[in-house]
Specification:
TIM Barrel; 8-stranded parallel beta sheet; 46% helix
Length: 298
């Protein structure tokens, strides 16, 4: 039996999809963002996650975005592709046609259907059998309306050798610690909450898939690396440097906040697609102030 290894450790970035003011996918802005993240020291990229507004992209746009990320990345970092949904057969079919240049899969627990824990287990078992790539389970109860329990996560980890990690965005530290404590060798927990990343790393998590990290990748990736190396005083300093920025980032939903910050950084516009809407003027002013403050501190 092959020993399971999670290749996705450290700082992963859930990339936004930049749009022009007219609402067209902005590949030039995406290039700037990818290079900014790589030069900032992140460890892997995540394409077509929730933060990418994937549900509003056409099939052609999704293919163009993924192809552009692969091309721009030029094999510098691993790329994880979001492939999830609430139709198990459809997800499995999509997993059989993954483009070249993709290193792994991020698959969210089924949303809206509200399956039982047995249904969640069987869903991920089917996904595991449909792909040879390493897979990250994504538990985000605030979006799916159902929690993947610690027991179910550990059952999936034991039964599916190519499911190598869970992105935990439950916010339940007791559940997270139970998974870390009981996980088989090679199965890791990744933070799905930016401001809980430091305490999760202190408890044994092995990384994060971050939204706020694309705003200031050098600060965020240093914080993660410092914590994983055991330098908690330095990690705390960078964690608290980003704390208020990250809190405000999610105050009116995601990715409106991070796109407002990226606009102030000159990376791309703040345009989002309906049903999302741009952040309020008050929050945009806060984002501008955070950007100015964090820039001056770098």
């Amino acid at each position: 039996m092959t020993t399971r290894i999670n290749p996705f450790k450290g700082t992963g970035i859930a990339l936004v999809t930049p749009f022009t003011q007219e609402g067209i996918v902005d590949l030039a802005g995406l290039t700037v963002l990818i290079n900014r993240c790589i030069e900032g020291g992140v460890d892997f990229l995540v394409a077509l996650g929730t933060t990418a507004e994937t549900s509003t992209l056409s099939k052609d746009e999704k293919e163009a975005v993924v192809a552009h990320i692969v091309k721009t990345n030029a094999q510098r970092l691993p790329i994880v592709l979001g492939v999830g949904g609430n139709n198990t057969a459809e997800v499995c079919a999509a997993l059989r046609h993954i483009p070249e240049g993709i290193s792994g899969i991020l698959s969210v627990s089924p949303y809206y259907n509200k399956p039982s824990q047995e249904g969640i287990f069987q869903h991920f078992k089917a996904i595991s059998e449909a792909s040879a790539l390493p897979i990250i389970l994504y538990n985000v109860p605030g979006r799916t309306s159902s929690n993947v329990s610690a027991q179910t996560t550990l059952r999936i980890a034991s039964a599916c050798s190519n499911i190598v990690a869970t992105k935990e965005a439950s916010g339940n530290m007791e559940q997270i610690m139970e998974i870390i404590h009981g996980a088989p060798i090679g199965f890791d927990v990744l933070s799905g909450d930016d401001n809980l990343t430091l305490p999760m790393l202190a408890c044994g998590a092995q990384g994060v898939i971050s939204v706020s990290g694309q705003g200031f990748p050098s600060i965020f990736s240093k914080m993660v690396a410092q914590a994983m190396e055991g330098d908690m005083p330095a990690a705390r300093k960078n964690h608290y440097a980003l704390l208020r920025f990250t809190q405000d980032l999610f105050a009116e939903g995601n990715p409106g906040g991070i796109k407002a910050a990226l606009a102030h950084l000159g990376v791309c516009t703040s345009h989002v697609r309906l049903p999302l809407w741009k952040v309020s003027e008050a929050l945009d002013t806060k984002m501008a102030a955070h950007v100015q403050s964090l820039r001056s501190g770098i």
